[in-house]
Amino acid sequence: MPRTPNAPADPIIVSDQTTTPPIFAAARYALTAVGAWLIGKGYITDQTLEMLTALVTVVAPTVYGVWLSFRNKQKLIATADAAPNSVAKVV
């Protein structure tokens, strides 16, 4: 439902996402440490650890990036919908 021009708008919050890379790095280091322990105990092989590390370093950030892009697009659509048609239109 579009807002009227006089309705109070929610503030636009801008985030630079500075914590995301350290979170993925910490997950990679934790996985390496736990994986080394699991290899030492004989629960997994080194190939399994390599696969899990690849999953954490490649797939997880990719999925997060796609989700973040989708979420930001939804916010942009909501902002454009709230603006007057002379400023922005959702088509």
Question: What amount of the residues lies in strands?
Answer: under 5%
Shape: elongated
Taking the sheet with the most strands, its summary is:
none
Number of helices: 2
Question: Which regions are unreliable across 5 or more consecutive residues at pLDDT < 50?
Answer: none
Q: Distance between termini?
A: 14 Å
Summed over residues and divided by their number, the pLDDT gives a mean of: 80
Backbone structural class:
mainly alpha
Helix content: 55-70%
Care to count the β-strands? 0
Task: Give the SSE order as H and E letters.
Answer: HH
- C-alpha Rg, in Å? 21 Å
Question: How would you characterize the overall build of this protein?
Answer:
- It is a single chain.
- This protein is mainly α.
- The chain has helices at 20-41, 46-82.
- The mean pLDDT is 80.
- Helix 1 runs antiparallel to helix 2 (46-82).
- 0% of the residues are buried.
- Helix content is 65%, strand content 0%.
- The chain has a domain at 21-82.
- It contains two helices and no strands.
